[in-house]
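User: Could you check the structure of this?
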Amino acid sequence: MVTAALVENNRRQIAEFSNQKISIFWIAPQFLIFGLSEMFTAVGLIEFFYKQSVAGMQSFLTAMTYCSYSFGFFFSSVLCIEDPVPAAPETCNFVKRPSVNF
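Assistant: Sure, the predicted structure tokens are below.
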């Protein structure tokens, strides 16, 4: 979240004062940090389930972990769907201003 805040602060300053566009590669550190944290979390959970749970529950708990991931990803994508992109920008309800940089 700190990385996202720094990138957004930089994006806003560039948009306000110099009216330039920044590269999409500015968000690469965010995805790198998020991917590494997901990887270590998943590996740690699976190792915990296989070492600390009853023999019959290991695969069930691993499956529940992946189900919780999938439900979380699904619901986060549902939250991002505001309304379909209209044909004309002036009929869009998502952005009320002409620019999102303000």
